[in-house]
Amino acid sequence: MSCNGALVSKGDSPLSLLQKCGEPIYRQNVCVSMLQLGWVVTPYRAGSPGAILANQCVPMEEWTYDRGAGAFYGVVRIYNGAIESVRDGDRNR
Question: What is the pTM (predicted TM-score) of this model?
Answer without folding.
Answer: 0.77
